[in-house]
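Please predict the structure of the following assembly.
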Amino acid sequence: MAKGVRPRVKVPKSASAGDVITIKCLISHQMESGQRKDKEGNVIPRSIINNFTCSFNGETVINVKMEPAISTNPYFEFDAKVPEAGEFEFVWDDDDGSTYTDTQAISVG
Amino acid sequence: MKFKALTAIAALMIAPGVAFAEPDDDTLVINGETEMVTKTAAPAHMEGTGIDTIMSGWHFRSDETQALETDDFDNPGMIFVDAGREQWNTVEGEAGKSCASCHEGPESMEGVRAVYPKWNEDAGEVRTLAHQINACRTENMKADPYKYTSGQMANMEALISLQSRGMPVNVAIDGPAAETWEQGKELYYTRTGQLELSCANCHEDNYGNMIRADHLSQGQINGFPTYRLKNAKLNTVHARFKGCVRDTRAETFKPGGPEFIALELYVASRGNGLSVEGPSVRN
């Protein structure tokens, strides 16, 4: 339903074990709140990303429940500690049931 | 006497403001690798204008706004570039073609932004990048043209501009384009509206000063299309021209019309030598 949705993530390619790294995530999405009306006065149905999860090797790093007041193209930036080499997985859940995922590997050296 | 005292106070109050408003000397490096030319010697035709160094509008923005342009992840304009990339690959029109059908990847557009507006021999006119995009759409794709300052047009311009990022602006102002360039120059120095302001009054005579809360730049267009924080979208050159002329309280020219084409050529030529920055970030 939602058009032009594209997740993007920025994670450093490598880090030292125990390093705290900064992760940036953005997903292009209209985030239609369900409060607006079109020209004819009909309510435009709500269509938002309602949940965002980042996990590292299966362990949850951050889980965000999202609400309609969040603006278009939601952006998250957070820190995470990297104990070992592995893979970050990012999952966005859409109101329409679809999920968007991205994965980024990080090496420890 | 009283009047003079007031003037003196006013001058005192303005002085720190002016000092604060000077364009800075930062260096713009994008993604930690592409160093941009944001200050350089003015092109020869600007002799006598009082400007010997041309500067990108980037120098006139706050550090926070500047930082947004240094990283493609932080640059909100890049979202629109992605949208443009989708448009590039979308088949439209009766000819059953997309941009990619003829031009392959958008990388083939390298260097294009830097030389537009440009004289088109077949059409016998100066064409802006937007006109060229629409000519391609109507003639080759048999599709409907984009509206001149629409979001779709801005997306496509952003995608094409990105391919030339870092290359110096180099529009031709001689030969057959000379006549249009002269028209543009005349427009640049023509006062419009109830406020009777020409482009030059602000962007040549007063760049670096504050016009109320706005920090006046040289009005360079090397960074277009520009993502503006104030409206959270990409803005095209002609939409910006329109906004400026409107602010002089004048009836504006039509975006995509002959006046703005001429003005775009002239203003672009004032930035000959600066890096193509599009999509840039401004406030």
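Chain A has a mean pLDDT of 91. The interface with chain B takes residues 4, 6, 8, 10, 24, 26, 28, 72-73 of chain A (CB under 8 Å).
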